[in-house]
Amino acid sequence: MHADPSTAAMPAPAETRFITGLRCLRCGADYAPAAIEYVCDCRPNRGSDLGTLDVRYDYAAVARSLTPADLQADPDRSIGRFWPLLPISQRTSLPPLPVGGTPLLAAPRLRRQLALPNLWLKDDGRNPSASFKDRASAIAVARAQAAGRAIVATASTGNAAAALAGQAAAAGQATVIFVPKSAPPAKIAQLLVYGSTVLAVNGSYDDAFDLCTEACLEFGWYNRSTGYNPYMTEGKKTVSYEIALQLAEQSGATAHDPNRLVTPDAVFVSVGDGCIIGGVHKGFKDLLTLGWIDHMPRIYGVQSALSPALYNAWRSGAELPAPLHATTRADSISVDAPRDAVKALAAVRETGGAYLLVDDSAILQAILPLARLGGVFAEPAGAASYAGLLQAMHEGLVQQNETIVVINTGSGLKDVRPWK
Ligand SMILES: *Cc1c(COP(=O)(O)O)cnc(C)c1O
């Protein structure tokens, strides 16, 4: 059973009616939601070797209570409108700082530049704390509050922490944050201004992660850390729901059949721990299971050549990535031992996508066309997805007429340090 002694005495959070349980993606064990909180103990719980859990739903019941037409008609554009597909008991369980509903931009000048007439930019820099991580942190705060936990903690390269700090501030929830000392000043400023207790760890993100895990076990804090908390994938998957809804609206498909959403051919996303790409995959899988889309997109994960753990594993066909020493300047994707590796590798392998490797110089260069032709100022890790698209075009992996979505995961204002 679960190795975490601190959870035994905790009340189980009120569950959504639609969650049937959690399944370990390593050993296949099934758990009732109240029986486990983070990871299955079938694995040593170190580095990438975690008993990662997948949250399972009664999709037939969801489909009886929610339709794409309901979602299109909902005046609430935040992730709250997806609540039956989230690990919360009601929409109002989320913190009162709306997340999601970010724009899907046509970016006509970028389209012309690349000769890709069906290119879209999903700008997740336009979340309350200016990164994609708000989608997951909203869920973390909702669950901690439902369980009556006094403190939520996380390890973070910066954005997950800022997102947690902002969502927690709005909800009146205390937080303790473990970040590597090297995190960009703007990200640390966000934490302090939002009122978090910040522990700047003299070490890497991976060191911060291990310290946070131990502190949560010791003190009974609720642990948001990516890859370890299975519910973070559930927040992150909402980006795929939005993309399919927005493409349906934009293409006019909604007018034709309000219960059909539209899948892109390819999605590009930058990858560190692998939680976002796993969430993108889960979101489209949910829609396919619900019968709202009829095929999956190819999912492309983009890594820096200076942080290539998942690319290497994909390339060699390994089950798990081998840890390495990541040094990329794109701090949000600088990860030695990716924690959400199982979901991250499945996302690419099961959809016929690929992992792509880009140099730090290509990441830096990608910031400029996004801003100068698209009007989107991305942080380095956010622009990496665009650099990945260019690499995919170079490798002949995309066709000119395909519908392609590039996700910007974070605002450029997060990190304006000169590039060394
Ligand atoms: C966290 C983050 C990523 C990578 O997400 P993972 O889930 O760690 O793969 C990419 N870009 C930005 C801006 C991020 O904050």
Explain this structure:
The protein is α/β, with parallel strands linked by helices. It has a domain at 104-131 and 233-414: Rossmann fold (3-Layer(aba) Sandwich). The chain has helices at 59-65, 68-73, 108-114, 134-146, 159-171, 185-194, 205-219, 232-236, 238-251, 253-256, 275-290, 309-316, 341-349, 360-374, 380-394; strands at 19-24, 30-31, 53-57, 104-105, 119-123, 151-155, 174-180, 197-201, 222-223, 266-270, 298-304, 354-358, 404-408. The strands form three sheets. The protein has a six-stranded mixed beta sheet, with helices on both faces. Strands 8-7-6-9 form a four-stranded parallel beta sheet, sandwiched between helices. The protein has a three-stranded antiparallel beta sheet with strand order 2-1-3, with no helix packed on it. Helix 9 crosses helix 11 and helix 11 crosses helix 13. The radius of gyration is 20 Å and the shape is globular. The site of pyridoxal-5'-phosphate has 20 residues, from helix 11 and helix 15.
Please give a quick description of this structure.
The protein is an alpha/beta fold and 420 residues long.
Q: What's the total count of β strands?
A: 13
Task: Tally the helices.
Answer: 15
CATH architecture of the domain at 104-131 and 233-414: 3-Layer(aba) Sandwich
SSE succession = EEEHHEHEHEHEHEHEHHHEHEHHEHHE
Helix-strand makeup class: alpha/beta
Task: Compute the CA-based radius of gyration.
Answer: 20 Å
Nearest-integer average pLDDT = 94
Low-confidence stretches: 1-14
> Helix amount, in percent?
25-40%
Globally, the shape reads: globular
How much β-strand is present in the residues? 5-15%
Strand order of the largest sheet: 4-5-13-10-11-12
Distance between the termini: 48 Å
Biggest pleated-sheet summary:
6 strands, mixed
